[in-house]
Amino acid sequence: MAEHIPAAALRRKPSMAQVDMLKYRKSFDLFDHQKNGTILVADFREASEKLGYRLTTGQVQKILKANKLDESNNIHFIQFIELLPKNSAQISDDEHRMAELREKFQRYDQDGQGCIRLSEASWALQMELDVAPSTALRLLNQFVRMDYNQFCEFYEKIQQKKLEIYETFGKYDEDQDGFISVDEAHKVLSKEFGFSEERSRTMVRKFDLNGDGMVSYIEFTEFYLAVEERKTRVKEMFRKFDLEGEGSVSFEQAQNVLENMLGFSSEKCRRTIEDYDKDKDGKIDYEEFAEFYTMMEQERDHLVEKFSRHEMDDQGRISLQDLKSMMQEEGCAQSSVDQITQDYDADSKINFEEFKRLLNFY
After folding, report:
1. Which of the chain's ends, N or C, has fewer CB atoms near its CB within 10 Å?
2. Residue environment code for 227-266, b if the CB has 16+ CB neighbours within 10 A, otherwise e
3. Any idea of the CA torsion for 135, 140, 146, 151, to the nearest 10 degrees?
4. Where does the pLDDT of residue 49 fall: very low under 50, low under 70, confident under 90, or very high at 90 and above?
5. Is residue 12 pLDDT above 60, yes or no?
6. Do 214 and 250 belong to one domain?
7. pLDDT tens digits, residue range 239-254?
């Protein structure tokens, strides 16, 4: 079983084994004019600027003096690492952090215009959070552009999100094997949203890119963001239905939603609300609403799927005979099926709004 790394470890300054050495090598090689694996001491300050550092003349002199270097010396790559990113004696932690921000800004400001455009911000999110281009653009809703100061705030939020994702992954990954199984996902999704096991399985399958039946840490970011977006949607719907702002949806409002959204009869509304009103106070609070809303979505999806099975006319209507067949499949009493025959002409056409009310009313 993979060793569990505490989330707090992410806050510690990373070792060189954890840092992307490629960027240091790339900056170093730009000044290796002789192609012999060294740079001139005279080029050290300019090389550091490529990595986001803004060292004063005094700092450079102190660094060189502490390492017994002068203008006649060359610096090899390992020594360059010791002098710059590993240097905590002459360069403070704040300076290292600022250098990282400047380097990131320079990297993502691809056209060197001094601001981050939408395409560049999208690329930044894809690189930093391992998300798909479509997800990055969705997260950047209403984005225009960022200057350096705005980028610093943006990047800080990305790092916070990384830590949040890591800690949440640990919540799902109960056995700490580095993967989220269907059972592990279902425990959380069932508690958060009232998902059925099949719906949890479907969600895992959606983000299981390599098809091994589990979600790895790399795959988890997209999974996590989808869950967070769902939480936001549930909260928005709850606020919409909580008309009085009392932290609950009244029986009357819940009934109104079920009637309009799903075409439930008054009796079916009553039974359904009672099922989800766990504490029997006659209202649906937020915890109860998460499951209630999931049920409504599932029921609507079920209705849409059934309706779309049948051939529709150019106005999106199905035949009365198709409706009667579906009612029989759903186990409706024959008396209910017969009632429709009396209420509608034999050649009647049924649209979706009529369909959902008829199917749920009888």
Report:
1. N
2. beebeeebeebbeebbeeeeebbbbebbbebbbeebbbee
3. -60
4. very high
5. no
6. no
7. 888 887 888 998 998 8
Three-class DSSP category at 325? helix
Check: pTM over 0.85? Answer yes or no.
no
Domain count, the chain: 4
Q: Is 331 left (phi over 0), alpha (psi -120 to 50) or beta?
A: left
CA 23 – CA 270 distance, rounded (Å): 63
Q: Specify the higher pLDDT residue, 327 or 81.
A: 81
Q: Which of 73, 104, 135 is the last residue of a domain?
A: 104
Give a yes or no: residue 235 inside a domain: no
Give pLDDT tens digits for 325-360.
777 776 666 666 676 666 666 667 877 777 766 666
Distances from the Cα of 178 to the Cα of 159, 168, 284, angstroms: 21, 12, 37
Alpha carbon distance, N-terminus to C-terminus of the chain? 54
Q: Domain residues for 265?
A: 242-307
CA 56, CA 90: separation in Å to the nearest integer? 11
Q: Could you tell me if 27 and 86 lie in one domain? A: yes
Of 164, 156, 166, nearest in space to 105 by CA: 156
CA distance 312 to 113: 54
Strand partners, 284: 249
